Amino acid sequence: MREGPYIAEIAALIGDPARTNMLTALMDGRALTVSELAQVAGITLPTASGHIARMETAGLLAAEKQGRHRYLRLPGPDVATALEALMELAQRTGAVRVRTGPRDPALREARVCYDHLAGARAVAVAAKLADAGMMVDHGLTDAGRTWLAERGFVRGDGRRPFCRTCLDWSERRHHLGGALGAQILSRALAEGWARRGEGRVIDFGQRGGAAFDRLFGL
Amino acid sequence: MREGPYIAEIAALIGDPARTNMLTALMDGRALTVSELAQVAGITLPTASGHIARMETAGLLAAEKQGRHRYLRLPGPDVATALEALMELAQRTGAVRVRTGPRDPALREARVCYDHLAGARAVAVAAKLADAGMMVDHGLTDAGRTWLAERGFVRGDGRRPFCRTCLDWSERRHHLGGALGAQILSRALAEGWARRGEGRVIDFGQRGGAAFDRLFGL
DNA sequence: CTCATGGTTCGTTCTGTACCGAACCATCGC
DNA sequence: GCGATGGTTCGGTACAGAACGAACCATGAG
To answer: Which of A27, A70, A125, B216 has its CA 20 to 30 A from that of A33?
Structure first.
C-alpha cells in the first residue's frame, strides 16, 4: 500500500482488543507491569510481551525498568486524548481493570524498597518536592538541595546518585531512592518514628507518622 | 474476546490503510462517491463497497443517495476529531487526495442536473439561503418562502416537493433541486441570462451572471 | 552459589479479513 | 424498450498477525 497514512498503523495498533485493554487500563496515568497488562488483556505473558514491544516502538507506551519488573505507562497526554476520542465514538461500556500492588494495607502504607522507603507516605514526600519545584525531571533543583540540607540531608555516599526517583510498586508513582532515600529511611528508624514490621512492612506509629510528616511539611 | 472494548472495533476499522485513505479524504467535509473513494484507496469497487458498508454500520460514515451515485461523508465532527487525534500521534506526512468532479471549468461553474441548475453558482444560491436562515435542515422556513415569493418563485407543480436540496457533483455541497430548482433554471434561460452550451453546460454571460446574482443577492 | 520469578525470543498453528473477478441489481440517457 | 454506468453481492484465494508452549535470559532472594 502507498506510503501515506501512518495513521492507519497507529489505529491498527490500537485496534486489537488485547492492546486496547492494556491501553485503557493505563489511562489513569498509573504504570503497570508486563504481567499485569497480560492479565488485564486476558492473554499469556509471551503474547503480551510482543504486543508491548510493538506499542513501545510505535511510541504508544513508555517503559521504565525497575529490578526485574518493567513498568509501562502512557508516554503523554496525546495518547490518552486519542483514546478518549475513540471512546467517544465507541460509547465505551466499561473497561476491564485489575487491582494493582499488594493486598496488605500496611504494605501499601509504608515498606522497604531495597534500602529506602516506599509506599503512600514515601510517594507523598516525592510529590511534595515535585510540586514545590524542588525536583524537576527527576533531579533536584538548587532550592531542593538547600531545603533538604536544612533538614539534615546533605550528601551522598559517593557510590551512587544522591537522589534517584523510583517507581512505587503500590502507588505507581515515584518515590525517592538513592542515597537520599536511604537516609530518609534510616532517619525515621533512628528517630524512633517507625520500626521494621512483618516482612518489608515499616510501622509508623501515630506520633511517629506525624513527626515524619512535619519534617517534610506534609 | 471479552465484551468490553468496543473501542477496539472502531480503531480496527480505522486501522486499515484503505479505509484510512477514504476517511482522510473526507476530512474536509466534502462527500465522495463510492468509486471515488475506491480510487482514493487504490482498490477496486467491490472491495471499497464492502469497506464502506462496514464503516457505515459502525457509524463512521453517513450516506446520501443521489440517482445512481452514493455520496459518503463523515457523519459529524466527532469522527474528524478522533482522526485528528490519531494524526497527531502519527505525525502524518501527507494524505492522498483525489481531484473531484469534472475537469471542465465550464461544467464546474454551471450545468444542468436533471432539470435544475448545478455548479458553483447554484451552490452559492443554496448557501445564501442557508446562511440567511431561510433554509433550515434542508427545508424552507417561512422567511425563505416569503423571500422567494417576492422574487416570483411561488409554488410547486404538485408532483414533487417545492424545494429539495441536491448534493452538487463538483462542489460537494448542496444546491437547490425540486420544483424550485427547476424554476430557477428556466427563469435564467427565459430571461436570457444564460443559455445551454456543450453537453450539460449552462453558459452565463457577463451581464447574465450579474443579473442572476443580483436577483439572489449574491 | 542456587532457586524462584519476571520477561523475552522462537517456532508453529490457526483464524480473520482484505482483495479480486464475475455475476447481478438499480438508475439514468436514449 | 435498450445500452451504459454506478454499486452490491458472492465465492475463492492468500497473506497477515494473534495466540500459545517451550526454551532462554536477567534479576533479586536466601
So the answer is: A125
Contacts of B15 in chain A (CB under 8 A): 8-15
Q: Which backbone phi and psi does A195 adopt, to 5 degrees?
A: -145, 160
Cβ contact A41:A77 at 8 Å: no
- Per-residue pLDDT band at A169 (split at 50, 70, 90): low
SS3 state at A175: strand
Does B11 contact A14 at a Cβ distance shorter than 8 Å?
Answer: yes
pLDDT at residue A4, as a whole number = 42
Q: Measure CB to CB from residue A89 to each of B3, B5, B79 and give the nearest one.
A: B79
CA distance to A157, A175, A176, A206, B74, per residue, from A140 (Å): 17, 13, 11, 30, 50
If DSSP codes are grouped into helix, strand and coil, which group holds residue B116?
A: strand
pLDDT of residue A167: 65
Q: CB distance from A80 to chain B under 8 Å?
A: no
**Whole-number Å distance between alpha carbons of B15 and A17:** 13
DSSP B212: H
Chain B contact present for A39, CB below 8 A: no
Residue A171 DSSP one-character state: T
**CA atoms of A16 and B134, how far apart (whole Å):** 47
Backbone torsions φ then ψ of B60, nearest 5 degrees: -90, -15
Query: By the CB < 8 Å criterion, does A118 face chain B?
Result: no
List of residues 6+ apart from B100 with CB closer than 8 A: B30, B32, B36, B170, B172
Spell out the domains of chain B, with CATH numbers in brackets.
6-90 (1.10.10.10), 105-215 (no CATH)
Which residue among B2, B19, B91 places its CB closest to the CB of A96? B2
- Encoded amino acid at B126, one letter: A
Give the closest nucleotide to A114 (alpha carbon vs C1'). Answer: D28
Closest by Cα among A100, A95, A96, A78 to A33:
A100
Nucleotide C3 C1' to residue A194 CA (A): 33
Give B1-36 pLDDT, tens digit per residue: 333 457 888 999 999 999 998 998 887 667 889 998
Residues of B in contact with A86 (CB under 8 A): 7, 10-11, 82, 85
- pLDDT value for A72: 92
Q: Are B183 and B215 in contact (CB under 8 A)?
A: no
Q: Is A86 on the interface with B (CB under 8 A)?
A: yes
Report helix angle A6-14 to B6-14, nearest 10.
Answer: 160
Chain B CA closest to residue A60: B89
